[in-house]
Design brief:
The complex is a heterodimer of chains A (about 210) and B (about 260).
Chain A: H1 2-25, H2 61-90, H3 93-122, H4 133-150, H5 153-158, E1 166-167, E2 176-180, E3 183-188, E4 191-198, E5 201-207
Antiparallel strand pairs in A: 1-5, 2-3, 3-4, 4-5
Chain B: H1 7-25, H2 31-44, E1 47-59, E2 65-77, E3 81-88, E4 93-98, E5 102-107, E6 112-117, H3 122-132, H4 147-154, E7 157-164, E8 171-177, E9 181-188, E10 195-202, E11 210-219, E12 238-239, H5 243-249
Parallel strand pairs in B: 6-12
Antiparallel strand pairs in B: 1-2, 1-11, 2-3, 3-4, 4-5, 5-6, 7-8, 8-9, 9-10, 10-11
The chains are: A alpha+beta (about 210), B alpha+beta (about 260).
């Protein structure tokens, strides 16, 4: 009996030794569970958000940082140029040409730095994350639509809506249609709208009055 | 355990274990390799069509998540034809069509369409539509001929998870990440590696919403007629500008407005 147990133990040990590495992979073979929504749809829920765009990128703090860097470079250049200009004014005619050359050189250097920053932001072609903004734009428009829907139609008709506000339906009960060229404007009291196609679909967007 | 009493039985057991172990410890395929095989296949296939059931989360003001669904029928004919028919969960139907010259988007319920001239390839049109016009075209990246280059540029890491058997066909499950999105793809095993499922997690967005897609009815052998990529507005359908174009144009000149009228 002992011999049997020893043989079994030996076989199990051998199998364990061989199967050992396979066990290391075992956790990776777990199921890929995912979260799902459980709400039923109803009024008042926003259907706009960054995930609606389905992009393989989204706006990140890193991108904002790059944009900030671009702006910072510009400000640095502006303040630098201002300082140079003041200094330039206090010097004599003889040194003006040299100062101008330095300023020109600084300007070119700054322009190159700004260009480099822009390229870094855009990536190779044509932008590093060209599909990142759709969700953000949709969210912005969606938020405007949501806010506008929540507001009363009467107030929209009697007050001047902020330019850019968007409505999924006509912004007042009987808007006056005013064709201007190929565009139709809609007037609700003092407010003007036109219909345009945005990321979340067609919407009436508050605009400045057309110029006559 | 009777067979272990004999040396032959032990040898058979050890041999079987070895065979099992050999299969189990075989090095899994590289996640990046699986991803790039799919990218190369999709980008080089001249014509394809697929139905995509989509879902995405939105984070509500109270922090809760709501899922929204839709279905899209995508037909692509390289180099310059694209048609995407969509239906939202509330029934709203829209269309995006590119014929090599113009890109058009149409809303059936509002009876309006917007159209911009943009001659070029599908790649050009898709980027113009999404980036410049600020429009929405989920999973637009998968439409591009330069998909492999885009993925090479964006993907920071990708790993193989397992071969999944629960999607109707064997599919390689991979997980990857870009600087802003974590993604999972299930890609069919075989000489036509196409995605069966995709999950994108916007990890830097509060609430980390997801976009999910289930791909069915892949067809790589169709030859869609040109008429499929032609948009002819029905009577009563009105052309409106893209919102982005409107913002650029600013106020427009026109005839004087009559004072009064219905308000």
């Amino acid at each position: 009996m002992n011999r049997i147990l020893r043989a079994a133990s030996c076989a199990a040990g051998l199998a364990g030794l061989i199967l050992g590495p396979a066990v290391l992979y075992a956790p990776a073979r777990g199921g890929g569970g995912f979260r799902g929504g459980g709400f039923s749809r109803g009024g008042g829920f926003s259907r706009e958000g960054p995930a609606a765009g389905g992009g393989f990128a989204s706006r990140s703090p890193a991108m904002t940082g790059r944009e900030g860097g671009f702006q910072a470079n510009r400000q640095q250049y502006m303040s630098g140029a201002q300082a140079s200009r003041q200094e330039y004014g206090s010097k004599g005619q003889a040194s003006r040409q040299a100062e101008a050359n330095t300023l020109q050189s600084n300007r070119e250097q700054t322009a190159k730095a700004m260009q480099s920053n822009a390229q870094q932001y855009r990536g190779t072609y044509p932008y590093a994350a060209w599909d990142a903004g759709a969700g953000v734009a949709a969210a912005a428009t969606g938020a405007a639509i949501g806010a506008a829907t929540a507001a009363s139609i009467t107030s929209a008709a009697t007050t001047s809506a902020a330019t850019g506000a968007a409505y999924t339906t006509a912004p007042c009960a009987s808007p006056m249609a005013v064709p201007v060229g190929e565009t139709t404007y809609y007037r609700c009291g003092a407010a003007w709208y036109t219909q345009a196609y945005g990321p979340a679909g067609p919407a009436f967007i508050s605009v400045s009055p057309p110029v006559y | 355990m009777l067979f272990l009493r004999k040396p032959g039985g032990l040898a058979l057991f050890a041999g079987g274990s070895l065979a099992l172990a050999w299969g189990a410890i075989e090095k899994p395929p590289s996640g990046r390799q699986i991803l790039m095989q799919m990218a190369n296949f999709l980008s080089k296939t001249p014509n394809w069509s697929v139905t995509v059931h989509t879902a995405y989360d939105t984070i509500q003001r109270d922090g809760s998540k709501v899922e929204w669904n839709g279905v899209r029928m995508v037909t692509l004919s390289r180099p310059d034809r694209l048609r995407v028919e969509s239906q939202r969960s509330d029934g709203a139907r829209t269309l995006v069509v590119f014929n090599g010259q113009e890109i058009t988007t149409f809303d059936e319920s509002a009876k309006v369409y917007a159209q911009e001239s943009h001659p070029g390839t599908v790649d050009d049109a898709v980027v113009y539509f999404v980036h410049d016009l600020g429009m929405r075209l989920p999973l637009a990246l998968l439409l591009l001929e330069r998909l492999p280059a885009e993925l090479q540029q964006r993907v920071q890491g990708v790993e193989y998870v397992e071969t999944a058997e629960a999607l109707g066909a064997p599919a390689r499950h991979i997980v990857g990440k870009t600087s802003t999105v974590d993604f999972q793809l299930w890609i069919t095993v075989g000489d036509r590696p196409a995605p069966l499922r995709a999950v994108l997690t916007y990890k830097n967005v509060p609430g980390q919403p997801q976009f999910r897609a289930q791909f069915t009815d892949w067809n790589f052998d169709s030859k869609p007629p040109d008429s499929l990529f032609t948009f002819t507005p029905a009577p009563g359908v009105k052309k409106i500008p893209f919102a982005s174009a409107l913002a650029k144009a600013g106020p427009r000149r026109g005839p004087a407005v009559r004072k009064g009228g219905a308000q």
